[in-house]
Amino acid sequence: xxxxxxxxLALVVAGCGAKDQGAATPDNAPxxxxxxxxxxxxxxxxxxxxxxGWSALAYEGLQGIKQELxxxxxxxxxxxxxxxxxxxxxxQKNYDLVFGHGFEYNKPGVEIAKDFPxxxxxxxxxGETASNAGAFRFYLEQGCYLAGYVAGKMTKTGVxxxxxxxxxxxxxSTLKAYxxxxxxxxxxxxxxxxxxxxxxxxxxxxKQATEAVIGQGADFIIHQxxxxxxxxxxxxxxxxxxxFGTNANQNDxxxxxxxxxxxxxxxxxxVELAKQVQSxxxxxxxxxxxxxxxxxxFVFNPKMxxxxxxxxxxxxxxxxxxxxxxxxxxxxxxx
Length: 335
Fold this sequence. Notes:
Layout: E1 4-6, E2 33-35, E3 40-45, H1 54-69, E4 72-77, H2 82-92, E5 97-100, H3 106-113, E6 120-124, E7 133-138, H4 141-154, E8 159-164, H5 169-185, E9 190-191, E10 195-196, H6 203-214, E11 220-224, H7 229-239, E12 242-247, E13 258-264, H8 267-279, E14 286-289, E15 296-300, H9 310-325
Helix pairs in contact: 1-8, 4-5, 4-9, 6-7
């Protein structure tokens, strides 16, 4: 960003009783001022920000930038072929920073960045970078690992499963962590392979996919369904099994089946990256935000606390402490 400065000329007049021929007058007195360019930040999401999940948490991060930095912000949904068009449009409108909320925005951002060196493109997931493009990764695997641990300890059927919209690397990694947590709690547990329903925002297909997993004996389900999560929860309610929320805190879902949530707290990451862009210090890289930066958590549903034994609750708190200290490193894929 460019700062424009108006620097006053200092006039020093010496001599007792001399005429002040160089003294500033109202007509020629300069004014010291700093004009600071307003930061412009855009957000692209794969679904509506009303989804109470993945897109909603990113929107909260965007609002955090607006509140803390006084930025001008904008948001729109963009998927598939619309991604590059949206990025290009924002860059043409001189936006300083464009967030793409998901793995699928990483490659397009790096490609578009070549044509717009004054705009920074950042995706939440991905491994490709350029001088003005990169990614940041929420270490959601940590929260999902704890959800898996709870499932492993509490399952009555000895079977658990998962449902997701697509097999994006970022999604697959979180579900692997869920499985690792479950096996740490119960080495004999049976884990049904993830059911991918493949249609963003389609709650009906998400419900069908969940019913198929439950039909194989699973009594705990975790999802990466984005805006279609309601379909997952409704299936769980009808089949009398428990679910985990992901990305946002979904404990208050009206189905009453969410026993806990693996939560992303987006504001710290969004604001930190925006500050780097504002100061001109951003370098294309991949940043990791986890429990140690207060960006990830696992939260039990207080309305269902009586279903979780004190021993399990304590075990989760102990595991959180180990994760934050680095004593426990939750597995994650590199991509």
